[in-house]
């Protein structure tokens, strides 16, 4: 399996067997959720999910393996896409358009689905959350700077905005005015301590606590867009906490956040092994979680560089 690892020369010899075993274990877990008609469920015996499908495609495409499942899943995403370009969690809920950036990533470098990616990019560039002139001091952030929401007709937040920026960067729209404005939004939503949470800095004058996964996403989105000084406190935050992380979402985004700025923990495979062992307590990880961990394992410079 390690022939698919981006740069095997950077791996210590004693880590080779561990990484090979991890890739095998995680890919086998993900492929169990592949549906006969294409696409992936998030949990075994579940129904099709475009977000889980996109993450599985991103993971498998990065390894250049299982071409048939990649193609059938990409085709299923195509069938999910609506006429205006959005990809929604369910077709009868068009407002749930937050999976669209994930589909943009999944369709990247796939010639047959270039038109689908283009339509999705066009949708994202012309879509935003609700924004208004700030009238009080309930929230500390600038409510006028546009980003992207989870759900249509709601306010913009850090995580969907970061994912949109990552997708647009991958699709060569990283310098578009929407991406530039979104960079301003992320910097405005940064806590005074230099970290991020879901998107509120203060409420009624009280500073809120940071979140590791939100910080990791924002760091990926801001890769090469700001000077290191602007994110150094966030990098310190992740470095100081990464060895304590045992859940797939926080660990996965923590590793990707550090990697996007050229930092890799000394025992990254060991951290993922420990995280996978937690399945003995909490049950098997779903497709989203396992794909994120797999991507975090093989990505050495963050999500953008891995997919692009």
Question: Which segments are poorly predicted (pLDDT under 50) over 5 or more consecutive residues?
Answer: 1-10
Q: What is the general shape? A: globular
Rg from alpha-carbon coordinates: 19 Å
Structural class category: mainly alpha
Order of helices and strands: HHHHHHHEEHHHHHHH
Tally the helices: what do you get?
14
In the sheet with the most strands, the strands line up as 1-2
Helix content: 40-55%
* Overall pLDDT level: 92
CATH topology: Glycosyltransferase
Examine the secondary-structure arrangement and name the CATH architecture: Alpha/alpha barrel
Main sheet: strands, sense, barrel: 2 strands, antiparallel
Number of domains: 1
Give the CA-CA distance, first to last residue: 21 Å
Beta-strand percent range: under 5%
- What is the level 1 CATH name? Mainly Alpha
In short:
The chain is an all-alpha fold. It has helices spanning 16-31, 50-63, 67-80, 100-106, 114-125, 158-170, 177-188, 212-221, 232-241, 248-259, 268-277, 279-282, 287-298, 302-307; strands spanning 202-203, 206-207. Helix 4 packs antiparallel against helix 5.
Textual characterization of the structure:
The protein has helices spanning 16-31, 50-63, 67-80, 100-106, 114-125, 158-170, 177-188, 212-221, 232-241, 248-259, 268-277, 279-282, 287-298, 302-307, and strands at residues 202-203, 206-207. The relative contact order is 0.12. The two termini are 21 Å apart. The radius of gyration is 19 Å and the shape is globular. It has a single domain (2-307), classed as Alpha/alpha barrel (Glycosyltransferase). It contains 14 helices and two strands, in the order αααααααββααααααα. By secondary structure, the chain is mainly alpha-helical.
